Amino acid sequence: MKLRDRNTGPHAVYTTGEAAEMSGLSQQTIIRCFDDGTLKGFRVPGSKFRRIPRKELIAFVVRNGVPPDRMEPLSDEDRAAAEKAKAKAA
For the whole model, what pTM was predicted? Predict the structure, then answer.
């Protein structure tokens, strides 16, 4: 399944690889930021796999100066989350 075919709704969650592809960052950067708490998410119970909620990924890219438009399609909820993250970072 291609990334563009995945759920992009407000409750979508992504693997570190998908988050890297969507944000234009390396997977190692995503993992490092997850592990140091800069990027919020959760581990799949009983495994070491990480998952990043879409809302958290959008907030992360905005806080770190990555254009959120890379993450198209952005819903109205995504845009609101991006604006909230931008205001919080300022």
Answer: 0.76
Mean pLDDT along residues 16-30: 92
Question: pLDDT by residue (tens digit) across 32-45?
Answer: 999 999 999 999 99
The CA distance from 40 to 33, in Å, is 8
| Cβ atoms of residues 56 and 39 within 8 Å | yes
pLDDT in tens, 61-79: 888 888 766 766 667 777 7
Q: Whole-angstrom Cα distance, residue 47 to residue 7?
A: 23
Q: Where are the beta strands (DSSP E) in the chain?
A: 13-14, 42-43, 50-53
Give dist(CA 73, CA 66) in Å, integer.
15
**CA nearest to 18, candidates 38, 36, 37, 39:** 39
CATH code for residues 3-85 = 1.10.1660.10
Which sequence spans correspond to the domains of the chain? 3-85
